[in-house]
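Morning. Coffee machine broken again, so started the prediction first thing and wrote up yesterday's gels while waiting. Chain of 148 residues, entered below exactly as on the submission form.
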Amino acid sequence: MASDGQSVERLRDYLLSLKPEAWALLLAELERGMLRGDDAAGNDLILQELRRAIRAAGQPVTRIGDAARLFFAPVEPFLVDAAADHRHVGRLARVSLEPIWEWIGRDLIPAEAKALGEDVNRALLDDEQGKAEQNQHGRGSRERQSGR
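Came back before lunch.
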């Protein structure tokens, strides 16, 4: 068990020795790999520790998004990092987004949510953030125009 703790400490020390530019590149590559379905051992731990190091340094944590993240982007100013069981007048608990997205994809518009996810993931894998955002906004506009 001490070995695992020492390994995590060594990982933290290594990540802290990197420059912020390297943090951003490493974070982007690991997240792109996850979008592709790569499941290398330790990725979750590395991402967790990398994000912790970035936050500790006061750097913004830029993340490669997914369809849900882009879908909820317009409500970002109204999100709070607090428990969902506490009322926040005019605010939405960030932890509520995942169940809402699951409901949308399972019960409300499953085909559209799946298609949006595929479009966004394809654009993000191609490193085209603007195209991913356009897919998210464009799909909704096309569906409204066609009466769906």
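Helices lie at 2-17, 20-36, 43-56, 67-71, 97-108, 110-125, 129-145. Going to sketch it on the whiteboard this afternoon.
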